[in-house]
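Sequence and structure are kept together here, with a separate record for every protein. A complete record is shown below as an example:
=====
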Amino acid sequence: MHKKRSYILSLIIIFVLSPFLLKAQIAEFRDSVIQISGITMTADSLRAIPAVSILVKGQNRGTISNRSGIFSIVVFKGDTLSFSAVGFKHKNYRIPPDIKGNSFSLIQLMVEDTTYLPVTIIKPYLSREEFERAFANMDIPDDAYEVARKNTSNARLRAMARYMPIDGREGTNQYLKKQAQNLYYAGQPPPQNIFNPLAWAQFIQAWKQGDFKRKDDSYGSY
């Protein structure tokens, strides 16, 4: 009986104190969150550094500085920020755990890093004829603009539409069009396209464009 009363008394105490404990935990969590706003600059000339990656170490989140070097991120007090950018040395900054308030301004200076490339030795061709032969047979790869131009050409798009299977959206559209056509000609014979001048015009136009020629090349992506 005594144990039962002690158990009930403990439950009552926990039930009464739980709101206060929860409120204290929320206040402690709110006090540990801090908004970091800052700018990344060069250490020698105080020039803004854009596109600097700012990551919170040990967590899968971060941000990146804009073209003016300005960034903003929410962290916890005591977290460590990792700054990295191409051409600059890696830098870490630990947020002080005893910082006051929930906002903090930071100016992060970064030192330029020198990257040494491997040695390149330039040798001439043995003769002018060898250079002309190598220059004429050189295979120059397409740049991004040329690849985009080939992938979006009208002939390529028509060939891909002819030989590649339709997706779900195109299949649904064709099914709905077929259903609408069947409902439109319900109770009467549908017209024959052999007597349709518009269909003949589309056929002649497609024939002139070469849509009915055999495509021997592959239409995979570049």
Remarks:
- The first helix runs from residue 2 to 32.
- Strands lie at 33-42, 53-56, 62-64, 70-76, 80-84, 91-94, 103-110.
- The radius of gyration is 35 Å.
